[in-house]
Amino acid sequence: MKRTFLNTKTLVTLLLVASLITACSSDDNDGNLDPELVEDGRWITVAAAKMGDNPGDGNGGTLIYSISSEDAKDPTISIEPFENGFIVPSNRTARLQASEGGNTIFNISYAGDTGGNYTKYTVNGGQNFTPTGSEVSIAPYVGSAPRWIKLFDGDKTGAAVYVSTEHQFDDNDTPDDATDDTYIRTEATMGIVTLDLENSLIKNFQESNIPLTAEEEANGYYISRIDMPTLNAAGNKLYIGARISKVDPTTAERDNDYEILGSKTIVLDYPSLLNPIVISSNVGHGNTNGYRSINSFEYNGSVYQANQGDPEGSHILKIGSNNEYDNTYDFNLDDALGIEEVYILAWRPTANGKAVVAYRHSGSQEGLAGAQGFFALVDLNTKTAIKIDAIPYDPDFYLFQYQGFAVNGTEIFVTQAPVGQNGNIYVIDTETEEVTKGAELVNVGGSHFIGTF
Q: Where does the signal peptide begin and end (predicted)?
């Protein structure tokens, strides 16, 4: 028999009534409000993105709903986050993070009147998320649509970034008429703010210029987007992923047909946020800023980073403890999976060096929201990858906006549901490679799920 979760308010009332009638506990506690239910596991919070104007755009807001890790593995359970979920403050798709144990959800609103507002919530099960601490706005530092991430430092710090760009011309020319001006370079200015997640306080803010090489800049290349700050193992450097764009230096107009440079990362001192430098890979090409999901992770003393838009297919790159790319580490997903044009959409490793990767490739079909993707299990140590066939593929399964993978030991929890259709939670044990089909996810028209936390 399939069990459908009631909303939290109804469930709390029922539990209170039951406690007055009998002292016996129920074996079928759908609400999972008892903290003992997750004592040996963790909460799994499912995030759902509601449609705005078009199917799959996620611009109608974000809802979250939590269940125990045990119930997340149970296919007889059915949850309806769009009907019973907690509405996370955000004008568009919220940018969510979870504590390492899953008991706290962190949010920074994206765009709109509340854009840039930081809030956090204690996870209590179902739609019950209790605000904790005070709110703080990082909008004055990085704008109302910030790109931010939680550093892996024991849930103490978040970091948000932005970059602004300005084309520079010869002072002897008139910048109002670009056809007559002599283009020199594009100035890229990085802003980064660190946030005390425990006390809701701004810790530090710095702005810096982030130049490329003189030759690259003369040819019109510049850093146009940055994201996903990652703390190194020593705790003294931040790595920030970068997207490279280009203008035609003869016209200063956008150039879309150009040679892709080696993947680049900004390295700066932490916690001072000073002395940024740009390092380049000789192995991978393309961008390293990712999109909605964390794009790089520290493992075994090094940082492993996905790249996107690589002409040879996405790589997982390695930055060593010397804060330089390790060009002896060559992990190409095209080669590992035996396909072409792999594009890593999101990924997450566990402590054993094995990871789940969401990706698309040249054979992906076009669905409601574009060419969609698959999941693979990869091993950072052996540089191998296998497609996870136990998770079904559907052309309307939208992974581009995927944000979160909940990790519990060697297990990774993912969501699979095509846009506007029901689906399920799936649990991948990265050690045994076993895949468990879990709780049903009830969808609504045009909407989709963006991960677990």
A: 1-25
Q: How many CA atoms, within 13 angstroms, populate the side-chain half-sphere of residue 344?
A: 37
Q: Is residue 433 part of a domain?
A: yes
pLDDT > 80? residue 138: yes
Q: Is residue 1 part of a domain?
A: yes
Q: Which of 234, 256, 291 is the last residue of a domain?
A: 291
DSSP code per residue over 135-162:
-EE-HHHH-SS-EEEE-TTTS-EEEEEE
HSE, side-chain direction, 13 A CA sphere, residue 161: 27
Burial of 7 (0-12, 13-18, 19+ CB in 10 A): middle
Pair 111, 80 in one domain:
no
Neighbouring residues of 102: CB distance < 8 A, sequence distance ≥ 6: 38, 42, 43, 44, 45, 123, 406, 408, 453
Residue 105 shares a structural domain with residue 88: no
Estimate to the nearest angstrom the gap between the alpha carbon of 34 and the chain centroid.
Answer: 29
Same domain, 56 and 102: no
The beta-carbon contacts of 118-124 under 8 Å, at least 24 apart in sequence, are 118/158, 118/195, 118/200, 119/89, 120/197, 120/200, 121/86, 123/43, 123/45, 123/66, 124/8, 124/33, 124/66
Residues 36 and 118 in one domain: no
Domain with 77 in it? 1-93+401-453
Pick from 291, 315, 344: which residue ends a domain?
291
Please give the Cα distance from 66 to 2 (Å, whole number). 18
Cα separations (Å) of 310 from 76, 250, 320, 413, 441?
Answer: 41, 26, 21, 27, 34
Tell me the average pLDDT across 188-199: 97
Task: Give pLDDT tens digits for 379-437.
Answer: 999 999 999 999 999 999 999 999 999 999 999 999 999 999 999 999 999 999 999 99
pLDDT digits (tens, 9 = 90+) for 220-255: 999 999 999 999 999 999 999 999 999 999 999 999
Q: Are 127 and 83 within one domain?
A: no
State how far the Cα of 423 lies from the Cα of 392, in Å rounded to an integer. Answer: 10
Tally of domains within the chain: 2
Same domain, 188 and 273: yes
